[in-house]
Write a structure and sequence with these properties.
alpha+beta; Immunoglobulin-like; 2 domains; four-stranded mixed sheet; 2 helices; 8 strands; flat
């Protein structure tokens, strides 16, 4: 009977009492390990972001060498009477970019933002550029404009800004600016 009582009560109590310190120790180690793992994860994230950034720069250098690179940018005036819907860019009679604008993108352009719409490679010399846009007035009338520009590519990168500006929806125009 004493043996039964011992087996029924003492062994479970003994096991319970002896496992409490072990579980506390395991919890401390786990917290320390979690802190260490968290630091390692943060370091790995930073390394991955650095590598991604470096790979992007290398990819751009490889795909678009500076001696043949051309980049086109779009900017728009802060005209509240006109809403830009889309822009299409042709270079040497080939469509190289087309973009439909969201509300947030239009707001960013109105606030002075500039969008890189195209980056590519072209040979040195003159190239025909046609920029077209579609927009609408506050009253809902649709407007379309197109303008031609000759891009003169020399050795080194070429940057061209396509500015959409005007006082009203009927006075919208496109101008080009070499950077």
């Amino acid at each position: 009977m004493l043996k039964n009582l011992f087996a029924r009560f003492f062994i479970p109590v003994f096991l319970l009492v002896n496992t409490i310190p072990l579980s506390l120790y395991a919890a401390e180690v786990t917290q320390e390990q979690i802190k260490g793992l968290d630091e390692q994860v943060q370091d790995i994230k930073k390394d991955v972001l650095d590598l991604t950034s470096e790979l992007s720069r290398l990819e751009e250098k490889l795909l678009f060498p500076s001696n043949t690179q051309v980049s086109l940018f779009v900017s728009a005036a802060a005209d509240e009477g006109f809403v830009l819907d889309s822009v299409q860019i042709k270079m040497n009679n080939k469509v190289v970019a087309h973009h439909l604008y969201t509300f947030k993108e239009i707001e960013a352009l109105r606030a002075g933002g500039v969008q890189r719409i195209y980056t590519g490679n072209i040979k040195t010399g003159d190239h025909q550029l046609v920029a077209s846009f579609i927009g609408r007035s506050k009253s809902g009338n649709e407007y379309q404009r197109s303008e031609n520009f000759t891009v003169t590519k020399a050795v080194g990168p070429k940057f061209v800004e396509i500015q959409i500006s005007g006082n009203s929806s009927s006075d919208q125009n496109i101008s080009f600016k070499d950077w």
